[in-house]
Amino acid sequence: MPPDDISKFSRRSLFASTAATSVALSTPWANASVLQAAKESVPADFKVTNKRIRQSVMGWCFNPMPVPDLIANCVKIGIEAIEGVDSKFYPLALEKGLKIALVGSHGFAKGPVDTANHMECIEKLTKGIDIAAASGAPSVITFTGMRVPNMTDTTSEKNCVDCWKQVIAHAEKNKITLVLEHLNSRDSSHPMKGHPGYFGDDVERCFELVRRMDSPFFKLLFDIYHVQIMNGDIIRRIQKNHSLIGHYHTAGNPGRAEMDDTQEINYPPILRAILDTGYQGFVAQEFIPTWSDPVLALRHGAMVMDVNRG
C-alpha cells in the first residue's frame, strides 16, 4: 500500500475488516471444511514411518471399541505401545508386538493428598510397580488426588510426598518410574475433560513435587492438553523442565478431541521440541474421538505425531 493511502485506511476500517475475517473463519461451514480436509489428508494405508516419536495410545479414550480391536489397529498403523487398558489385555498386546507404555494404579480422585487414602495408594502403586516390572512397562501413573477442605497447600504437598516416599524404594529397585500427572481443574463439561478440585492443577507445583521426591524414578507426566488449559507456554516449560518429565500425553484443545486444525495446539513444533531435549520415552494419544470413524481419527493422530526432526 502506498504511504499516502495508509492514512486513508482508518483504524475503524481495519478493525471492521479484521472482525469480518474472524467471523468468516469461525463459521460452522469453515470449521467443517477444515475438518473434512483433515480427514481427507490421511492415506487409507498410512503407517508410522519416521518413528522419531515413540507413540502410545490411551485405551479408555476409544471405548466402546473392544480392546483387542484397538490393539489390532495400533499394530496395523505402526503405533509402538498401548496404555490405559486393563492389565488382563497385556499378554495379548505383547503377543501382537506392542509394548506397555504406562501401568495404572490409584485413581485421580482418591490420591495421597488425603492421608486417609495413603494405605490404598501405597497398595495400588506397589501392585502397579510389580505389574510394570512383569510386563516390561517403564512407568506407573500416580496423581495427587482432590483437595481436602480447609487443608493448606503446604500440608497437602507434604502428604503427597510422604506417601510417595513409602513406595519409591520399591520403584527404584525395579527400575520403574512413577509419573505424576498434572490435570486441569477448569473444564467441568465432562468427567474426563477436566477435574475441578484436583490439587495438582498447577504444573509448576507438580514440578516442585517431583524435585522434592529427588529420585530419578519419580517424574512428571506432562499432559500437553491439561498444561495448555492451566498454564500454557508449553515449549518453554518443556525446554526448562525436560529432565523432570517421564511421559507425555496429547489431545486437542478445547474439547480433548482430535489434534486437527479445528483446535488451538500446534503439535508438530511441540513434538520436535520434545525430541530436541533428547527425550526417548513414550508420547501417548489421549484424545476422545469425535469423528464418525475412530480408526481414521487414530490414524490421523499417528500421522500428526510422526514428525521428523526437520
Short description:
With 310 residues, the protein is of the alpha/beta class. It is 44% helix and 12% strand. It has two domains: 1-40, no CATH class; 46-305, TIM Barrel, CATH 3.20.20.150.
SSE topology:
Elements: H1 3-6, H2 11-26, H3 28-40, E1 54-58, H4 67-77, E2 81-83, H5 90-95, E3 99-102, H6 118-135, E4 139-142, H7 153-165, H8 168-174, E5 177-181, H9 203-213, E6 218-223, H10 224-230, H11 234-241, E7 245-250, H12 267-276, E8 282-285, H13 294-305
Parallel strand pairs: 1-2, 1-8, 2-3, 4-5, 5-6, 6-7, 7-8
Written overview of the protein:
There is one protein chain. The protein has 310 residues and is an alpha/beta fold. It folds into 2 domains: 1-40, no CATH class; 46-305, Divalent-metal-dependent TIM barrel enzymes (TIM Barrel). 44% of the residues lie in helices and 12% in strands. It has an 8-stranded parallel sheet with strand order 3-2-1-8-7-6-5-4. Strand 5, helix 9 (203-213) and strand 6 form a beta-alpha-beta unit. Helix 4 crosses helix 13 (294-305).
Please describe the structure with a list of short key phrases separated by commas or semicolons:
about 300 residues; alpha/beta; TIM Barrel; 8-stranded parallel β-sheet; 8 strands; globular; disordered N terminus
**Proportion of strand residues:** 5-15%
Helix-strand topology string? HHHEHEHEHEHHEHEHHEHEH
CATH homologous superfamily designation of the largest domain: Divalent-metal-dependent TIM barrel enzymes
CATH third-level topology of the largest domain = TIM Barrel
User: Based on DSSP secondary structure assignment, what is the total number of beta strands?
Assistant: 8
How many individual helices? 13
| DSSP helix fraction | 40-55%
What's the end-to-end separation, in Å?
35 Å
